[in-house]
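lol ok so funny story. i was supposed to be doing the assay writeup but got distracted and ended up predicting the structure for this chain instead. priorities right. anyway since i did it might as well share w the group, maybe its usefull for someone
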Amino acid sequence: MKSKPLIHLSLYVFFLAGIASCTSNEEKADIMVDNFMKQHLHDPSSYKLIEYSHLDSLHSSFEATDEAAYMIDKMKQITDSAAFYADKVSTVYKAQKLIDDGQRILKSYKKKQAAFNSQFLGFTKTIKFRAKNDKGVWTRSYVTFRISPDYKRITIEDGDITIIDLFGSDVIKNNMAKD
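and the output, tada:
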């Protein structure tokens, strides 16, 4: 009878040890970010983390597609043209036609936006940090990283202008998110 509590206790300890040895997604991302910084900064030994953001999921959106950009550009052109024609009484008809075209494109845009099938692209994580730039001057900056869904690839999604002096243009060019 005393062996049952011992079995339960040993299973409990085994379970806790298994959980403790697992690395969370947040920790995996932190490790990837730290490794990236240590590999690519001009002066990796000067890297001082100020703050990590939480790991955030990244999904595709219709607004980020070429088709959406084209439609928005077309609507801006129509708006500008309609404003130009609306000032002249003789071209009110042209202005109204342009407005109708713009409304048709907007309606189509909203329909495509609602029907867009969003896809999971991975994760983002932003860090604020200090490091010495290529001239040895301490600089405060931030970088947002994109991390692949399988945690095998990390790229730069966004950052302020100082990252060029902190990493170098070749690092930025070779590690920017492409899509």
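The two ends are 62 Å apart (CA to CA). DSSP finds six helices and five strands in the chain.
back to the writeup now i swear
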